[in-house]
Each structure stands twice: as structure tokens, then as C-alpha cells.
Specification:
Enolase-like, domain 1; 3-stranded antiparallel sheet; 8-stranded parallel sheet; 354 residues; TIM Barrel; 2 domains
């Protein structure tokens, strides 16, 4: 099979601020494999957790390096491809882009969308949350109003907390958002590791009193030893994101969290996302799917697995001004994969943009 790599830049409608910084645009990597006249598409978006950020350049360079080794293989030889990626030490974002392209190719060859090929029911897909970044109360309220103007059918919100200004700023933002959208009862918070244990405990009670549904990544990656205390004392369920990359990370977390956040960039693609799903369920944990600065291509790919998730946070493509792809539809607050073969993504027509 032949592999092509192309870069594209996307700009956010609303810049997103989390505890680690602010993002207004990213340059993502579009991967195309071609074999027997069929193309499979994949994507990677840069992200940074810990000391080794997966930049656009790192991801693209690793894919270009492995391209010559793929020429002798078929997209159906996924075990061989996976072994080759691991031997070449591809970063997870690069593995994800190629793995997604392989799945897309297989679905197109079978002439079936992946969700149907896997026997899933789209009716089981839950609403996706819309993310409100860290902001002063007035700006947070305006963001909610802006989103309601753009997607009036939204049913769930996720609030980024862990403000450098402290817990009072976090609390003020929560109250402002709830005042701006009193009809939305599904609200969760994500601290992105921005709290210490004592702060997380204090906020868990305060948030529970205000109807918040769960807390995501309250403590920094590397402080998983403090999670048991929070797990046993918090009145709210605890989910982890940055603390969980692959299926190997899940068993040690099973006695100290209630659920995990699976992202394609962290897991290395749909293949490992499947493993994480089954491992988490076997450990009695809940499942959520999340995203980074992903276009419609990536979010449509993970949407193929969405009937198996308890919570969804797949809103990044809805916040893009110049997404080059069209994929899953947004209906009644839900991101729904289509009936086109494979992932079901096409390039956006320039005429349609106007």
C-alpha cells in the first residue's frame, strides 16, 4: 500500500483555555493510504502531556519514515502493520492516524460503515458535551450563549476548571455557566490536573451540591497515588484522562477511579481503543470518549465506537472555522456517524463553505 502525508491548519472559533494553556489553532496531519484503488483516511492532531509533546513535525516525520516499509503490505494485514509501528516506535498520534486509515480502507472495501460492520446501534449514542474553557464569569456566560446560538440542541456541557486564579475563580465560573444555561442539567467538569488533593476534595463536595455529574482528571498525571483518597471520599464519580493512555494503564486504576477517557491520539487508534473499552468494562469502569483539536475526520472515526460509551466529549470539530472534512452529523445534541462506507468522511466542497 502507498501512504501519503499532508498537513493542514485549522482555527478555532473560540480559543480554548485549560489549566495548561490556551489553543487557538493547530496544524494537523492527514494520512491517506491507497491499495487496490481504494483510499483509507486517517488523521493526527498534536497534543502535549508530560515531557514529550507529540508535535505536528514529530508525527509527520515518523509517518514518512515508515511509509517505505508499508509498500509490501496490504491494509488487511493489520497485525503486521501494528507490529511494524511498535518496532519503529511511532508515537501514539502517528499510530492512530495510520490505524484509522486502515479501518477506513477495510470499511470501504466491505462497502459498509464501521459502526454497521461492527453491529452497533446508533440509537444508543448519548449526547456529546460542549466544552467551555477557563474564562472569567462574564466571558464564560458569553461562550455558553454563543454555543447555544450555534447549536441550540446541545444537551450537555463540560467546564474546564483548574484556573491559575484558584478555587474561587473556578466556582465563580461554574455559577456563571449554570445561570446562563439553567435548562442544561448534564454538566461535568475537567480540571486537567489543575488541583491538589485537598482542593479536589473541597471542590467535589461543592460541585456535587450544584448538580455536577462527574469530575475528570482532578489531579496531575503522576499523582495517581492520591486517587484512592479522592475515590473513597468524593461524592462525585472520578474519571481520568491524562493518567490513562492504553489498556495497560487501566488495571492499576481500577480501584481508584470510576471511569476513563479514551482519546484516539493517546490510545494509538481504534484498535487500541477497542482494547481499552473491553479492559475497562472488565474492571467495572465507565467509558467516555474525548478529543483534542480534532477535525470531523477524527471525531467521526471515534463516533463509530460511540454506541459503547457512557459519556462523550466530541465537540472539537464543531468549534472549527475551517474544518476541511465533513463527516458525522450533529442531531439533537448527538454526534452521529453516517451510512457511507468506512468512517464516512468526505472533503468539504469549497462551494459549500460559502
Amino acid at each position: 500500500m502507498q501512504l501519503r502525508v499532508q498537513l493542514f491548519t485549522v482555527h478555532k472559533r473560540f480559543a480554548l483555555t485549560i489549566s495548561r494553556g490556551t489553543t487557538a489553532q493547530t496544524t494537523n496531519v492527514w494520512v491517506v493510504i491507497e491499495h487496490d484503488g481504494i483510499e483509507g483516511w486517517g488523521e493526527a492532531s498534536p497534543f502535549s502531556i508530560g515531557e514529550q509533546p507529540q508535535t505536528t513535525e514529530v508525527i509527520a516525520r515518523s509517518l514518512q519514515k515508515i511509509a517505505p516499509l508499508l509498500k509490501a503490505l496490504s491494509p488487511l494485514e493489520r497485525q503486521r502493520v501494528e507490529r511494524l509501528m511498535l518496532e519503529a516506535r511511532l508515537p501514539s498520534g502517528a499510530r492512530a492516524a495510520l490505524d484509522i486509515a486502515l479501518h477506513d480502507w477495510a470499511g470501504k472495501q466491505a462497502n459498509l460503515p464501521l459502526w454497521q460492520l461492527w453491529g452497533f446501534e446508533r440509537d444508543r449514542i448519548v449526547p456529546t458535551s460542549i466544552t467551555i474553557g477557563i474564562n472569567p464569569p462574564d466571558l464564560a456566560q458569553q461562550r455558553v450563549k454563543d454555543w447555544l446560538g450555534q447549536v441550540p440542541t446541545l444537551q450537555a456541557l463540560k467546564l474546564k476548571l483548574g484556573s491559575p486564579a484558584g478555587l474561587e475563580a473556578d466556582q465563580a465560573m461554574v455559577l456563571a455557566v449554570q445561570n446562563a444555561a439553567p435548562h442544561i442539567t448534564q454538566m461535568s467538569v475537567d480540571a486537567n490536573g489543575g488541583w491538589k488533593l485537598e482542593q479536589a476534595l473541597q471542590m467535589s463536595y461543592w460541585l456535587a451540591d450544584r448538580g455536577i455529574t462527574y469530575i475528570e482528571q482532578p489531579l496531575p498525571k503522576g499523582q495517581e497515588g492520591d486517587l484512592p483518597t479522592l475515590y473513597h471520599e468524593s461524592p462525585l464519580p472520578i474519571f481520568v484522562d491524562e493518567s490513562c493512555f492504553s489498556s495497560y494503564d487501566i488495571p492499576p486504576l481500577a480501584d481508584r477511579v470510576h471511569g476513563i477517557n479514551i482519546k484516539l491520539m493517546k490510545s494509538g487508534g481504534l484498535t487500541e481503543a477497542w482494547r481499552m473499552l473491553h479492559t475497562a468494562r472488565a474492571c467495572g469502569l465507565k467509558i467516555m470518549f474525548g478529543c483534542y483539536s480534532d477535525s470531523a475526520l477524527l471525531n467521526t472515526a471515534i463516533a463509530q465506537l460511540s454506541p459503547l460509551a457512557d459519556h462523550l466529549d466530541l465537540d472539537s470539530h464543531l468549534n472549527l472555522l475551517d474544518d476541511p472534512f465533513v463527516g458525522a452529523s450533529f442531531q439533537n445534541g448527538r454526534v452521529l456517524p453516517q451510512e457511507q462506507p468506512g468512517i464516512g468522511v468526505r472533503l468539504r466542497s469549497p462551494k459549500a463553505e460559502g
